[in-house]
C-alpha cells in the first residue's frame, strides 16, 4: 500500500505517521537517508505507514564495487535523538543494508554523559557512532582512510569536546554551521550536491533536544542552471529558525535560505510561527512567515510528515497543527502536502519529487507517468525516454490515479520555452520535449 521505487534523482517523503523519514537520491549509487521512523505496525496487512527499512532494502543500489548484492545506503543522518526520528535504527543495523557513512551531532554525547533519557534506538545509534569513531581513529593510525561502513561525520559545536571520544578526530571529520558538505561516503559530489549546515549553533548545544536539531539546506544542481532546493529543519521552533534566517541575512548568505521544498519543522507544528510575546501570551510571529515567503520559489511546496490533520487542533494531540498548515498556505501558492493524507487518508503513498533537469523538483504525477510510459513503449522509447525525465524506476502500479497532481511550473515553463523557440505559430527551431535521450 505504501510502496514506491526510488527516482533516478530526487526526494522521497515516506508516510510514517507523525515522524520523519526522508530519502534523498543523489544519483548513481548514492542515497542519503535523513531520520528514520519504521514502526512495527508497518508490517500489518492494512498498514497506512511505510515499512521504510524493507523498502530501502528492496530499492537501494547494489553496486558492483561492493558485491553486486548488498543494498547500499551512502549516508544516514540523524537530526536529533527523539524516537520519532530514529525509530527502527536498530533494525536498520541488523538488516543487510550497508550504511557507508553516518552524520551525528555532539548532543548525543552530552545526553549520554548526563544520563539523559534516550530511547533504545537512539542508544544503538550512539553505540554505532562510537564504533565508527574508534574504527576511523584506528584507520588513521594505520595510515589509511576509513572504509565505507566505518565512516562518520560530526556536525555542530559542543563546549565539552575534550571529554568525548571524537576529540581526536582530524578536522576533516567535523562540519560546523556556515560550512557545506559535498563529500558523500568518500565521493566528491561538488557538482551535483551540496548540504549547507545551518544548525545546531554553539550557543544552543545545551538546549532542549529539539532545539539542537541538525538543520540543512540541500541543493541539487542539475547541470542546466537549475537546482532542486530543500530545507530540512528537524524539530526546531521559532527562536532557532529565526536565528537561522537572521544570521544568514546578516552574513550575506541569503542564497542558503532558498527553498523549493520545506519539510515543515516538528511535523507541521505551530511552534514555528507561534511563540510568546512581550506580554507572555502566545502570538503569531509574522516576521518569520514573511522571511520564509521571501526565500520560497514561485511554486514552493511544504511537506507535513505527519498523520492526517484533525478537523480542529486539540491541545495535547498535535502536531500537526491546522494553524501551522494555514500559515504555510498563506505564503505558498500550492497547498501543504501531508504524508498521512497523500493521495488519501485511507491509502497514503510516499510523496515523491523527481529532480527534473529543466524544472528542478517535480511532484511525480503517476497517472500521467503511466500514460507516458505506455505511449513511449509503443513508440519504441521505453526506459531510455523515461530516463531523460529522471523517473525511470517509478512503477505506476505503486500508486493510484488519484495521486496525480498538476504541476503549474512545468506547464508554464514548457509553454514559455515553446513560444520562445518557435514564436506563436512557427515550427520549433529547437526540438523540445521528447527527443533523443
3D architecture notes:
This protein is α/β, with parallel strands linked by helices and 437 residues long. Helices cover 27% and strands 22% of the residues. The protein contains twelve helices and 21 strands. The protein has helices at residues 52-59, 83-86, 89-94, 107-113, 120-141, 238-250, 265-268, 286-294, 322-331, 366-378, 382-388, 408-422; strands spanning 10-13, 22-27, 30-34, 36-37, 72-77, 98-104, 151-155, 174-175, 180-181, 183-184, 187-188, 194-199, 215-221, 227-232, 259-263, 274-276, 282-284, 296-304, 337-338, 351-356, 360-363. It has a nine-stranded mixed beta sheet, with helices on one face. A seven-stranded mixed beta sheet has the order 9-12-13-14-15-18-19. The chain has a two-stranded antiparallel ribbon with strand order 10-11. Helix 10 (366-378) crosses helix 11 (382-388). The protein is globular. The two termini are 32 Å apart.
Could you provide a short overview of the structure?
The protein is of the alpha/beta class and 437 residues long. The protein is built from twelve helices and 21 strands.
